[in-house]
C-alpha cells in the first residue's frame, strides 16, 4: 500500500507542475459555469439540475484529456520499463495512477461547490439531490478515469488514447439516448448500460445499490483490462 501512496503522490503532483491541469480545470469551470448560469434564471428554480444534466457529457471529454498521458507518455519515452524495475507491482502502478486521477476529478469539482452555496442564498435549495449529485459525480468521474486509464495503456500516442477514451465515455453517456432505434426487447438491458441513466438516478438523491454496482463494475472491468494490456506489453 505504501507504493500505491507513493505513486499517487507523484502522479497527483505531476498534474500541477505543468499548465495542463490548470487549463483543464479552467475550461471545465468556464463551460459548466456558462451553461449553468445562462439558463439558471430562465427556470427561476433553486436547483442544480442543469449542472448535473450536463456533467456526464462534459466528463466524456475532460476526463480522457486528464488520463491520456498516464501510461501513454511513459510507454512512449520508456520510463515505464524503468518503473517496473522498482519494487512495485502492476496493481501498485495502476491503483496509484487511478487514485491520482480520481483525486484530480474531485479537485476539479471542488470549486463548483460555489454553485449550490450561491443558489442557497437565492432560494430554498434542497441539499439532498445536491449531495447525491456530487456523490454520483465522483462515481461517474472514477468510472471514466478508469476507462481513460485503459485507453492510455493501449497505445503510446496520447492523442489516440484521448480519442479512444472519449469514444468509450461518450458511448456510455449516450447509449440510453439512442434506444428508439433498437428493438423493444433490448431496451431494459441497454438502458442499464448507460452511465448517464445511473448517474441521473443518484443525482436525484436516491442512492441505489444497483447504480453503485454499475459504476464499480465499470471501474473493475477497466482496471482489469488495463492490467491485461500492461502485461501484454511487458
Shape: globular
Which structural category fits the helices and strands?
Answer: mainly alpha
Mean pLDDT: 83
Count of individual helical segments = 12
**Strand content bin:** under 5%
Major sheet: size, sense and barrel closure? none
The radius of gyration over CA amounts to 18 Å
The overall strand count is: 0
| SSE ordering | HHHHHHHHHHHH
Distance between the amino and carboxyl termini: 23 Å
Structure description:
- This protein has 234 residues and is mainly α.
- The protein has helices at residues 2-16, 19-43, 49-67, 69-77, 79-84, 90-109, 114-122, 127-153, 158-174, 187-193, 195-203, 209-233.
- The mean pLDDT is 83.
- Helices cover 80% and strands 0% of the residues.
- It is globular.
- The chain contains twelve helices and no strands.
In short:
It contains twelve helices and no strands. It has 234 residues and is mostly helical.
Characteristics of this structure?
234 residues; mainly alpha; 0% strand
Reconstruct the topology from this structure.
Layout (H helix, E strand, L loop, with lengths): L1 H15 L2 H25 L5 H19 L1 H9 L1 H6 L5 H20 L4 H9 L4 H27 L4 H17 L12 H7 L1 H9 L5 H25 L1
Helix pairs in contact: 1-6, 2-3, 3-8, 3-9, 3-11, 6-8, 6-12, 8-9, 8-11, 8-12, 11-12
Amino acid at each position: 500500500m505504501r507504493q500505491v501512496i507513493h505513486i499517487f503522490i507523484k502522479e497527483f503532483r505531476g498534474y500541477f507542475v505543468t499548465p495542463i491541469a490548470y487549463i483543464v480545470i479552467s475550461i471545465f469551470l468556464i463551460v459548466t459555469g456558462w451553461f449553468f448560469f445562462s439558463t439558471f434564471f430562465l427556470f427561476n428554480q433553486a436547483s442544480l439540475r442543469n449542472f448535473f444534466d450536463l456533467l456526464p457529457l462534459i466528463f466524456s471529454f475532460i476526463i480522457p484529456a486528464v488520463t491520456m498521458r498516464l501510461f501513454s507518455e511513459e510507454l512512449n519515452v520508456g520510463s515505464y520499463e524503468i518503473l517496473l524495475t522498482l519494487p512495485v507491482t502492476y496493481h501498485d502502478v495502476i491503483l496509484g495512477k487511478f487514485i491520482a486521477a480520481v483525486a484530480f476529478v474531485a479537485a476539479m469539482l471542488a470549486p463548483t461547490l460555489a454553485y449550490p452555496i450561491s443558489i442557497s442564498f437565492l432560494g430554498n435549495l434542497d441539499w439532498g439531490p445536491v449531495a447525491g449529485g456530487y456523490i454520483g459525480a465522483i462515481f461517474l468521474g472514477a468510472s471514466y478515469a478508469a476507462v481513460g486509464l485503459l485507453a492510455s495503456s493501449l497505445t503510446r500516442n496520447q492523442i489516440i488514447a484521448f480519442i479512444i477514451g472519449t469514444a468509450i465515455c461518450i458511448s456510455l453517456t449516450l447509449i440510453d439516448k439512442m434506444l428508439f432505434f433498437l428493438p423493444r426487447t433490448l431496451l431494459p438491458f441497454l438502458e442499464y448500460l448507460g452511465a448517464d441513466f445511473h448517474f441521473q438516478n443518484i443525482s436525484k438523491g436516491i442512492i441505489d445499490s444497483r447504480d453503485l454496482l454499475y459504476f464499480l463494475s465499470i471501474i473493475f472491468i477497466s482496471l482489469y483490462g488495463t492490467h491485461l494490456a500492461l502485461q501484454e506489453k511487458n
